[in-house]
C-alpha cells in the first residue's frame, strides 16, 4: 500500500523508557476513543496530520542502527489498524521487535495482529477495576466529554477479553495503571484493580506496573495543580496490589522502573 496515509502524531527516534530494558523508536498515531482527564498526549487524541506510510518507514530506517524495536503508541494506535499492520510487518522484516501501547479496547485488532505474529509485547492500560464500569467511565471521561462514545460496560468487557486472549496465547504483556491523587489510584483503588486482573497476571507472570501520574500537563486544566504521588507513596500503594499479585512494579520520575520487593 504505497500511497497509504497515516494520521501521524509524533515520534521519538531513540527512547529508553517505552519498553523497559530495550531501546526503541516510538511512533505516536493520532485518535483515541477515550478522553482521560489526566492524559498528557491530549493534543493527538484528535485532529489530523496525514503522512505517507513511506515517511514513517523512513523514521524506522533512521533509528534502526540504534534500536532493537519499534513501539506504536498514541493516542490509541490500534484505531489505525491497517497502518499498524503495515508498519509492524516492515519492522519485523527489518529484524526489529514490535511493541504496542494500547487501551485494550480493540480486541479484534489485537487478535488479528497476534494471529499474524506481528507483535512481541503489548503494554495495556488498566485504568480502573475491570469489574467497576462506573469507575472506568470516570477514568476515560465518559459523561464528561462529548467525544467519548463508548459505553464503560463494553470497555471493561473488551479490556478483560483482550488480556485473557494474550494470556491464553502466551503473548508477552505488561499491565499498568496511572495513579493520580484524589482521582483514581489510592490504595483501595489499586487493590480493586489488582483483584480484577489477578487471574491473568498470576497465570502469565506479567508485571503489573503502578505509574506515577504527572498531572501538570493534564488535558483537564483543573488537575494540573495536583501533587503527584511520591516514590515512597507508590511503594506503599504497591503493598495493596500485593494482596493479589506477586509481580508488582512502580514507575516514577525519581526512580524509573523498580520491581517491588515485599520481603
Characterization of the model:
The protein has a ten-stranded mixed β-sheet. Helix 6 packs across helix 7. The model has no long low-confidence stretch (mean pLDDT 97). The chain is 33% helix and 22% strand. It has helices spanning 53-63, 81-93, 107-115, 133-140, 152-169, 187-204, 231-241; strands at residues 5-15, 24-29, 50-52, 69-73, 97-102, 121-125, 172-179, 208-212, 248-252, 256-259. The longest helix has 18 residues, at 152-169. By secondary structure, it is α/β, with parallel strands linked by helices. The protein has a single domain, classed as Alpha-Beta Barrel (TIM Barrel). It is globular and about 50 Å long. The protein has seven helices and ten strands.
Keywords for this structure?
TIM Barrel, ten-stranded mixed beta sheet, globular
Estimated structural class: alpha/beta
What's the CATH topology name?
TIM Barrel
What value does the Rg take, in angstroms?
A: 18 Å
What oligomeric state is this? single chain
Spatial order of strands in the largest sheet: 3-1-2-4-5-6-7-8-9-10
Give the helix proportion (percent range): 25-40%
Count of discrete domains: 1
Architecture (CATH level 2) name: Alpha-Beta Barrel
Secondary structure layout plus pairing:
Elements: E1 5-15, E2 24-29, E3 50-52, H1 53-63, E4 69-73, H2 81-93, E5 97-102, H3 107-115, E6 121-125, H4 133-140, H5 152-169, E7 172-179, H6 187-204, E8 208-212, H7 231-241, E9 248-252, E10 256-259
Parallel strand pairs: 2-4, 4-5, 5-6, 6-7, 7-8, 8-9
Antiparallel strand pairs: 1-2, 1-3, 9-10
Helix pairs in contact: 1-2, 3-5, 4-5, 5-6, 6-7
Amino acid at each position: 500500500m504505497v500511497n497509504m496515509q497515516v494520521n501521524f502524531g509524533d515520534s521519538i527516534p531513540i527512547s529508553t523508557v517505552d519498553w523497559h530494558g530495550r531501546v526503541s523508536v516510538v511512533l505516536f498515531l493520532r485518535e483515541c476513543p477515550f478522553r482521560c482527564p489526566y492524559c498528557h498526549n491530549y493534543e493527538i487524541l484528535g485532529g489530523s496530520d496525514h503522512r505517507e506510510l513511506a515517511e514513517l518507514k523512513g523514521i524506522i530506517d533512521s533509528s534502526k542502527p540504534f534500536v532493537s524495536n519499534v513501539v506504536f503508541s498514541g493516542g490509541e494506535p490500534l484505531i489505525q489498524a491497517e497502518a499498524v499492520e503495515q508498519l509492524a510487518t516492515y519492522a519485523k522484516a527489518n529484524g526489529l521487535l514490535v511493541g504496542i501501547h494500547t487501551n485494550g479496547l480493540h480486541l479484534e485488532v489485537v487478535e488479528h495482529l497476534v494471529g499474524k505474529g506481528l507483535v512481541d509485547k503489548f503494554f495495556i492500560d488498566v485504568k480502573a477495576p475491570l469489574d467497576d464500569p462506573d469507575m472506568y467511565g470516570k477514568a476515560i471521561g465518559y459523561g464528561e466529554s462529548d467525544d467519548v462514545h463508548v459505553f464503560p460496560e463494553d470497555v471493561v468487557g473488551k479490556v478483560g477479553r483482550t488480556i485473557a486472549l494474550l494470556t491464553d496465547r502466551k503473548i508477552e504483556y505488561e499491565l499498568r495503571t496511572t495513579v493520580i491523587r484524589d482521582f483514581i489510584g489510592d490504595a483501595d483503588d489499586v487493590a480493586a484493580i489488582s483483584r480484577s486482573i489477578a487471574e491473568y497476571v498470576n497465570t502469565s507472570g506479567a508485571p503489573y506496573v503502578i505509574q506515577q501520574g504527572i498531572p501538570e500537563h493534564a488535558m483537564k486544566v483543573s488537575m494540573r495543580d495536583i501533587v503527584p504521588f511520591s516514590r515512597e507513596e507508590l511503594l506503599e500503594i504497591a503493598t495493596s496490589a500485593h494482596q493479589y499479585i506477586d509481580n508488582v512494579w512502580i514507575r516514577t520520575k525519581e526512580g524509573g522502573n523498580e520491581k517491588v520487593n515485599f520481603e
